[in-house]
Write a structure and sequence with these properties.
six-stranded antiparallel beta sheet, single chain, Mak_N_cap, transferase, kinase, about 50% strand, mainly beta
Length: about 210
């Protein structure tokens, strides 16, 4: 279950994403709208993990992000922004490809066949809504959860239209700009949204 608080974020997610994309050479244009998102959980409950689909120019952009309560050591170059959450306080918003917790969640979902978490909305500790999602995501693999290996960190090998991240003995490939082709991998996370579908995260052995 992914807990979403009924709260305000200043600046807003759309403002954060739009400003960050404007600094990326690979971005196909200006952010015009948010399509939706899918989430996976951090088992420790500390890091928020959200993969957002955006309309950018004439393209769809896939943007995995992570939300933390404190800075992530060594990831200064991948900090999108800090934002004030009316319930949780200051949140540090990162490009999730540099966040080991987020990358492990994507790796695990691809290998085990996990589906995205339902979004339960809480207001002051009380469940008020189970939000309907317009974006669905599911891994293609059939590994047991306890078979997914542990690792200490991540190394980003390329960062652009596709990001390639070394994770222990695996490579995780994240498609940023959706172009009709699938992310390279023996297993993947397949995503469906209004008007499209594709494997946007791929996993393979190095």
């Amino acid at each position: 279950m992914s807990i979403v608080h009924k709260a305000t974020l200043t600046p807003t997610k759309k403002e954060i994403f739009g400003a960050w994309l404007a600094t990326q050479a690979w971005s196909p244009g200006e952010l015009t709208d948010t399509i939706g998102s899918y989430r996976f959980d951090d088992p420790a409950g500390k890091v928020g993990i959200e993969c957002v689909l955006l309309e950018v120019g004439e393209s769809v952009v896939h943007l995995p992000v992570s939300y933390r309560e404190a800075p992530l050591d060594g990831a200064e170059d991948f900090l999108m922004a800090t934002s004030e959450h009316s319930t949780l306080g200051t949140r540090y918003v990162y490009d999730a490809c540099a966040d080991p917790v987020a990358v492990r969640a994507l790796l695990s979902a691809a290998l085990t066949g996990a589906t995205q978490e339902p979004m339960d909305v809480y207001d002051r500790g009380r469940l008020v809504e189970r939000r309907e999602t317009v974006v669905t995501a599911a891994g293609t693999g059939s590994w047991a959860r306890n078979a997914v290996p542990h690792f200490d960190g991540v190394t980003i090998r390329s960062h652009g239209v596709e990001s390639r991240v070394d994770v222990g003995s695996f490579v995780v490939v994240v498609k940023r700009v959706v172009d009709g082709s699938d992310a390279d991998g023996t297993e993947s996370i397949r995503v469906t949204w209004p008007g499209g579908s594709g494997s946007l995260v791929g996993v393979r052995h190095r």
